[in-house]
Structures are given as C-alpha cells and as structure tokens.
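yo, Glyoxalase/bleomycin resistance protein/dioxygenase is done. seq:
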Amino acid sequence: MAIEGMNHFTVISSDLGKTKAFYLGVLGLLEGYRPPMESTGAWLYAADQKYPILHIIAERPMPENASGVIDHMAFTATGLQSTIDTLKQHGIAYKLNRIKELGVWQLFCHDPDGARVELDFPADEPEPQE
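structure:
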C-alpha cells in the first residue's frame, strides 16, 4: 500500500446552515454532488476538483471534546487580502504568520463549531493591509 494524498476531512456541524455559510460564503468552497445518505449534510469541493475535500455531517451529536484528536485542517489558497477582508466582514478572528523559508503565509481561523482551519497562501502575495 502507498498513500497517494489526502482525500477529505469530515466535520460535525451543530448548525448545517451556519457551517455551510462559513465554508461556502467565507472560504469559497463549492457545494456539489452528495449521494443519497441516511444523514443530513453536504459535500464541498474546491474549484474544479473532481472529488469533495470536505464532508459535513449535521445529524450526529457533537462529541464532548469537540476538537477530537485532529488539531486542524489546512487548505491551499490564493487571495490573502480578499480573504482577510471577508473574514473581517463576517467578524471572524484570525491569526496570520509569514514563513518565508517555506514560501507561505499561514492564516488560522475557526469554523462555527470551533474546528481550526489553516489557509496557506503563497509567500509572494503582498503583505495585507490589516
């Protein structure tokens, strides 16, 4: 067996509408095909990717320790300034780090249920106006 890449993450949502609004309206993912299932949820896609990268499940109870064992999920992104502007418009707190050695800006924020999200932008994007 050989691992070829990451397929998707699944998040549990206490409010499907709020969770979709964050990942669709704030982060810009796209809702796409989800086969018929017993649970309510959504499958989200990035740009023109063939397979979903994020599954949302809405009818499962939240675990007592909602953060679980996964610390965060990370997405490759572009448009650092517009992302910061959008986060501010939605009142979403974030932390921004520039790691020149890795060629990346790292932006951290949380979804409506507290899942930590990392957005990685190319280091050559201009320093944002905060």
